[in-house]
Amino acid sequence: MDIRTSNKTLSLNEPQVMGILNTTPDSFSDGGRFVSLKQALAHADSMIQAGATIIDVGGESTRPGAAEVTVEEELNRVIPAVSAIREKYPDIWISVDTSKAEVMQQSIDVGADLINDIRSLQEPGALAVVAKADIPVCLMHMQGQPGTMQERPEYRDVIQEVYTFLKDRIAVCEEAGIRRENIILDPGFGFGKTLTHNYHLLANLNTFHQFGLPLLIGLSRKSMLHQFLGKHPADCMVASVVCAAVAATQGAQIFRVHDVDETVEAMKIISMIQTNQ
Known about the structure:
- The chain is α/β, with parallel strands linked by helices.
- The chain is built from nine helices and ten strands.
- Belongs to the DHPS family.
């Protein structure tokens, strides 16, 4: 299984690590650390050197309770970073974490390879931008909106409801002209889900392989780890790597993480085990 653009291919026959680059002042774990272009590029450098094959650039925090930002502000945070990374690293995959069609379009124009959308292309114009660009997109499940999603998330059956949502969004995307082979799925850990919901999803990831599409997993430093363990998010590296490894053993292919070096090492061990089964 691969993901492709017009000029590059990324094999998903082994786990791929996506390094998180938040150019925001208010992200839950590293907000404010990489807001300048110099800081952002230096962090991208370090993650690429550590083995990240994808850099995920985000200009709007989606932590619980986060405030929305304007299109202009998000563009000012994202576009210079994407441009600088693309100029320095022509072959690295660049993902942009956004729901706004204009941010998607301008990011693609300066070299983004993949759109990572927590709202699964439900915002105005988003479907059309991705369909026209013919690039991969990650569709994520979220109950509610970031500002209120963790107030009282409820499900009758979290696995079935996440599955049904993703099935419906795949159909909408295909109808809009997005090729199925360009779709990646994310069950949305921490997005409108309790601690129990999150661990139930992690224990049942195999359900989502029924789509025959790549799975992107974002567990790094999230509340299902730091609240459960009673730690600060930045102190949850070991827990984050353990959960990524658990997801890898269930066949997930892409791992969105803060701690690239440690996750890359874990994935090398997983790959070695899998090749010797």
